[in-house]
Amino acid sequence: MQKKIDISTHGDHLIQVAIQRPDEHSAWALTVLVRPSAAAAWSDPWVDTQRTYFTCFDALAAGKQQGARMIEARRAATVPGDDETP
Question: From the CB of residue 34, how many other CB atoms can be counted at a distance below 10 Å?
């Protein structure tokens, strides 16, 4: 089993990307977690079950992009929208 974990920042959030594969001939699988830097709890994991990645660099780049999308979705969910009634 090969496994690599990368933790990076995106604004005021952390992104954890875990990539793993059972052997050197298998494709990389991807799991992503995000959290605010000051918080203790990570998000529920996002697991990519649809794609496989030929290199660990491809998987890592895709994981960071997914983490950024997750953070933006969290921000959008916490910002009041136009659907509020006066």
Answer: 24
